[in-house]
Design goal:
This is 54S ribosomal protein L31, mitochondrial. The chain is built from 3 helices and 2 strands.
């Protein structure tokens, strides 16, 4: 991925972190917020997890994030254990 795409991914992840924190501070409680709170923050993620996703069909079991359909709309913060 290009530097611009990587910067946009990081910016998007930080924006999501800010929204989760704002909703958490507002006092709202729900199952989706509990799940979102359990996800790693952008600063806690490794570059491998930020820019690639697990794929059992690809060599090395990882594929670049921009090849995932609607990657801007789905969470990419979870990977299978051991990968």
């Amino acid at each position: 991925m290009s530097r611009t795409r990587k910067a946009n991914v990081r910016k998007r992840l930080r924006a999501v972190d800010a929204v989760i924190e704002a909703v958490d501070n507002s006092g709202v409680s729900c199952k989706a917020l509990d799940y979102a709170r359990s996800l790693p923050k952008e600063s806690e993620m490794t570059p491998r997890d930020k820019y690639t996703v697990f794929s059992r069909k690809h060599k090395g079991y990882r594929k670049s994030l921009h090849k995932v359909p609607k990657f801007t709309k789905v969470t990419i913060r979870r990977t299978p254990p051991g990968f």
